[in-house]
Each structure stands twice: as structure tokens, then as C-alpha cells.
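Tutorial handout. Part one gives the primary structure; part two gives the three-dimensional structure as C-alpha cells.
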Amino acid sequence: MTYTSPSNMAGVEGDVSDPASLDPESLGFMCGIEVHQQLATGKLHSRQLGELYDVTIDSLPDTWPKIPRRLRAASGEGGVVDVAARFESKRNRSFVYCQSPNSGLIELDEQPPLPHDENAVDIALTVSAMMDCKPVMLLQAMRKTVVDGSNTSGFQRTTLIATDGVLKTEGGDVGIDVLCLEEDSARKLDAQQSSQGEVVTWNLDRLGIPLIEIATAPDITTPDHAQQTALALGRVLRDTRRVRRGLGSIRQDLNVSLMCGDRVEIKGCQDLSWIPKIIRLEMARQLHFFRLTNQLRTQFSLPLLSTDRRISDENISAQVRDLLPLSTVDVSACFTDCTSKMVVDGLSADKVMLALPLPGFAGHIGCKELDNDGAQMPRLGRELAGAAKTAGVAGIFHSDELPAYGITQAEVDVVRSTLKGVDAFVLCLAVDWQAELALEGVCMRARIAFERIPQEVRQVVIRKGAPEDGTTTPMRPLPGGARMYPETDISPLPLDSSHWQDIASNLPPSQEQRLNRLNGCEISSDQANQLLARELDDHFFAHANDLPPKAWASTLLEHNADVGLMALVIAAMEQGHVTREGIGKLLDSLKGEVPSMSEIIARSEQLGLVPADTNDLKEIVDKVVAERLDFIKERGLGAIGPLMGVVMGECGGAADGREVSALLKAAIERFS
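Part two.
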């Protein structure tokens, strides 16, 4: 189908097959970031340990209690049920909660929460001060409705800490709208379909771990600037040295919109290098669906949608409902002779094939195409499938892509005849109630194709732990203000001005300050950068005045052991009680112990790690050199490396490498 852009399309130029070429400024691009960072403290409102357990649904300990639950949406403070909560409650899901050793009655929502963890509050205040935020002088915990099962109570506790800050980035200043302290959610272990709906299993180990949530203003100007902002936020948080590190400890959400589109929140942006591509693909998606809307409106003689979302558009919802009524048809009989294994297995398992007519949508649903960079281009079919999947079904079939998946043209023709010749339709194979719910979602999303894109939460498509191509799928409607109401079980926490001043006047050093301090020590620049990157510089300075800097830095970087124990072992080496090469073996043998210096010396002697006597070592070196004079005449000082191993073997490992090297050099020069 050819399409000519209507006159009101000025200002929305761009090739959606080449997202990298889209111009953010001309398209009215707006973007903000929300960062959620776990803190290295106990849980926020229960005093349980903030531990995570390395378990899967298959390795779940039998001793962990398992509690089945259902959740239902409650109205917010204004008496309104939030749109996202209402959506979740329609999905007919049930939940099983696995009680980890660090979860108790509070995590199970069977005991009132305790007041805020003091350490968590102080960390949140510290981060606020680092970005010049204005603190809230009375901290009031709020309940944020969450009925997707990730919280046993049906809400997440969130406390506003500060507002109105600023973050310095390479691409310019970005405002900080709010900084909150909230509970992390439970971790999903499994999801299984049943005839009554989806059953989701959750691990409660993460539930209640404190999170700092930072939401920026929409001051981000380009996709690359978004990545710079995420990196800058991460640096500020890490500078506290009081946040968790590792996969999953920090999560970034992107809020993206074009002037012709609307605000969309994108979750799952774990790898910061993907942020620019994810945003560009969302720009292409919003641009594509604005154009599709006006194609449909033109085809059905409806007023065109404005390129400016601030302009109120004529309400055409009633007309669209008449064009696309929610009218499903059971077409299972059309597939009695179908040979598709998927269809045969489904119908034999008492599932039904329901059809939803979409008159006028032929050619608009779309088939899979790739853009210039290999990512899937936006198409309505993916959005319809995403809407259906929220009901728990595996997917849908639609007329633009059929025949396919074992469904033949003959069966397509029979379905179209049953639907009285309609040009487009969607099929769903599932148990009857689930197929009805899925096609209701499809119908609602098809109607939205005549409107501006919906404000919604989307997630990055992940395959094997990494983004598949940067595209996203819908999760749920964007939450509204009705989801938040006061937490009556926790008293408001006053913030004393002297407490705030104490926090603000004792901020942690920045990365630049830490690196400058390290560069003033007698260590290599590589050691300095590694100590900083691995957050070992404070440990280094704790013993820098008592130990040789390079040896101490190397030990911290090369070994994973108790810092105090490593310091004692290095001191023993300096006193001549252990060889440099024996440090690792000695540390391994002392793992889990708290030895004195005399015990360390005794263990080194027991393991044969005491350096050889200098005179004995010199004799061994002279002997090795004398036996290999021809090799030395051929290699000269280049023979030192190969002969090091020979000497060390003769000494049984009880020799210092630097001393052996020095003696070999002197001996070779003497013999030559």
C-alpha cells in the first residue's frame, strides 16, 4: 500500500529503517532516566540481612517454606484504583512465595514494618548532598500499589528523600527531580501456565533490600547523552562506597518521548552501552506508529492526528469502537484437518481457536522486517502480540503473516469466509477464558492504533542474558498518581538540620580525588587505576605507611583474602619470613583463620616458604650458571628468564624472585 504524508506531517521526517539517522531535536525528543541502586545494608523495614541466595527453581531448598497467595488491587488515597493495578488484577494470576532464610513475617506481610534503617537513610542523604538536592525535612513512607506479585503486600514502600538537584555530565547539566528510598521487590523464579491462569513463583530474599531511586528531569538531549547521564549517576552512587556491586544491583529505566508520540518507560537497560540504540529504536517506533495512525485515519476518513501531543485532538474513540467492536468468533472447526503440530496439540488439550476480525487492517499489521542495523522494525503485529501475551498466552496468529506456522492458505480462506470476508483478523489458541482475555487486549491495542501511542511501561527484549537487538515489548500501562498513598504503619521521620549539615560537610571523595591521591604513591598508574576500579584504595591506604607500596598493591589486586591477613603476610615477607612467590600459597593455607605474626611465620616454615639463605642461594646460582655456560654465551642476559625457573626449582620454591634475578645477572656478567 502506497501512502502520501498528509500536510500536517511536517516536522516528523525521518527514515525508521535507519534509526541512527533520526534527528532528536527536530522530532521533539525528550528523555529522562530513573536509576534504582541497591544499598549495602540490611533490609529497609525488617532488620533482616540483605543477602541474595544463588538458587533457581530447580535448586530451591526443600526446607524453605512456600506460601501461596493471590493479590487484588486496592484504591489509592483518592478512592481510585490505579490503571496499572487494575490491569494486573485482570490477568488472573496466583503466586507462590519462597521464604528464604533472610525473610520473616514482615516480608510475608504478616507483621507491621519497622522504622527506616538508619544506614540506608544516611546513604540516601549522602547521595542527595552529592548532587546538591534539597532534602525533605519530614520523611513520610508511602505505599505504591504493585499487584504483579513482586511484593507480598501488594504495594512497595517508598520514601521521598530530596528534590531539585543537579548532575554534571559530559553533555551538560541534568536536573534531578526526585531521590527516593524504597524497598526492592522479590525475585521471580518461575512462571507456569495452568487452566486457571498463570502461577508465578517468587524468592523473597531480595524483597525489602533498600533501593535509592533517582529520577532525572527530561533534560537529556540525545541518545548518547542518556548513556553519559547513566554513567555519571553510576559514578556518584559508587563514590559513596556503600552501594552493592554486581549484576542486578543497579537498574536503569528510560523515559522516552517524541513530540508526535508520548512518554514511554523502558525497563531492562542493564548494559549501558545499549542505551543509545534502545532509545533510537524507540524513537523509530513512535515515529512509525504516528504515521500508521494517520494512514488509518486517512483510510477511514477520520481527522488527522496532530504532530504536537500538547494540542488536544478530536475525540474519535466512539467512532473507532464502532469500526472495531470486540466480537470474537470460535473458529476451531476451521482447523479440524490442520496438520500444524501447535494447532493439533492445542485443540486436543481442550483449547479453542478464537478469531477477532479487524476490518480495514489488511497490510497494516505487518510482517517481520529488519532495519539497516539488523534490529526488527516496528510493526503493529508485535504490539498486538504483546497485548495478547499479558493474558499469559504464548502468542497470536494474524492474517498479514498467514499462511505460516503450519496453517495453510485453505484454512485462512475458511476462516475469512467464516468471518464474512473480513480482510484482516487475529487468531488466538488457548483455553476459552484466556483466549477471550488475550483478544480483548488485542482489540484494545488495535483501537489505540487510531490514537497517539499509549503511555506504557515496556521492557527490552532479552535473549541469553543480553539485549536481543534493542527492541522492546509492552509490559503494562504507565502507572498514574492513584497508585500512591501514605504508609500508616510507619511514623514520619523528622530530619534534623544538624544531621543534614553533618552529612553535607562529610561527603566522600570523588573518583578524581581518589585517583589523584593514589597517583601520589609509589605505585604504577595501572595499579592505581585497578585499585580505584575495584574499590580497594581505602584498603590500600589503611596500610600504605607500613608496607612497601607496590608489593601491597599487587597483593590486594592478585589475592582475594582478608585485608588484615594480607597485610600481616606482606609484613612477614618484608621481615624475610616468606618468599614473594609463596604469598598466595600461604594465604590459601590461612583462609578462615585469624593468626598472629608468630603463627604466620611458623606456617611459612612448615610449608617451606621461608627464603633460602643468601649464601646458599648464591652457591646454587653459581652452580646453575656454570653448568649452562654455552647457553649463556648464546643468550647473554637473555638467559636470565629461562634460568630463573631452574634456580627456583633447585631451591624448592624457597627463594625470592627479585633476589634470584639479581644474583643471576651478577653471575652471568661475572662468567661472561
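Part three, for discussion. The first helix runs from residue 83 to 89. The CA atoms of residues 112 and 489 lie 6 Å apart.
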